[in-house]
Amino acid sequence: ECKACGWRSVLFERERILRLALPSVTLTRPRSLYDLYMMSCVPGPADAEKGACACCGSAAQCFAQKRLATMPRVLLLQVCRDGPSGEVLRHPVYVDESLEWPGLPAMQLVGVVYQHGQRVDSGRYSCACRGADGAFWDYDKRQRPVRLVDIAAPFATNVVLLVYAIGRGVLETRVGQEGVEWRREHNIRRIED
Predict the structure, then answer these.
(1) For the chain, how far is it from start to end, CA to CA, in angstroms?
(2) For residue 132, which of 9, 44, 114, 146 sits 20 to 30 Å off, Cα-Cα?
(3) Dihedrals φ, ψ of 47, to 5°?
(4) How far from the centroid of its chain's Cα atoms is residue 135's Cα?
């Protein structure tokens, strides 16, 4: 929205990664991904290149607001931990196994990437992935894979990338004369022999 002439426009951009910034102030409690997403939706000054008013050309008085319009099948969330002087902001982030934001379909956590180090450009990375058994496994080159009891707790200050996929619910199978039925929370599919 342009404050000079009142012009409003809507732009849709395709992004492969949703980037969520951490506040630069010290946090007293862990932030959820929803908190970080809502902070990214607060209107602010528009980017000078993208935010110039189509009506009057002014960029100095234009404001922009970002939000998700649709949810992809696979969502990558980056927690931007870059501090003002290159240090890593180690604020704890609560990792949700199920992502349920208003107006968007539910998504299930598939994997998490962690960054261990003092600076953004140094350190090492590890990850936790959901296994075939439904549990999360921590993979670090320093040790064998370890089964995690709680995905949110171990490295809350090290989360840098999360991978979510649209949730399908519990899968049940039943064999009968009419074929195999796959039951899910919201849809039923029939696969005939």
Answers:
(1) 56
(2) 114
(3) -60, 135
(4) 20
